[in-house]
Amino acid sequence: MTMKLEDLYTPDILALTTDIRHLGRLPQADATARMRARLCGSRIHVMLAVKDGRIINFAQELAACALAQASAAILSHHVIGTEARTMFAVHDAFENMIRNNGPAPEGIWSALEILRPVHHVPERHESVLLPFRAVCRALKEAGYAPE
Fold this sequence. Notes:
Blueprint: H1 11-16, E1 31-36, E2 43-51, E3 54-63, H2 66-78, H3 84-100, H4 125-141
């Protein structure tokens, strides 16, 4: 299936760009990560507070394309309260969905299904995965590792 880039920007995806939570800084972060998507230039800075393996607070600064914003919006709705090991698993499932058209992550993370069409536009994979990669990088900085 061939898909034009502009076909990705559905009303549902664009609506997510106006529903991003936890924007700003987290003064007492246990870990941070700054990342950039090479192709589109999207940038994100995530800040996490983690206690007993669970994300207890989160903030993000974002200068990104609509796809990265949509991904960051979904992330922002569910990241607080998520265990580190679950976050790594969600990232892996999301990446598999985007790169290989695999199943969507389960449970509350099934909202990522809305981004499945990105599978058909490989040059946007990095953008849509950016917020999840950044959170996983910050978790690794805080001493957590995928299982």
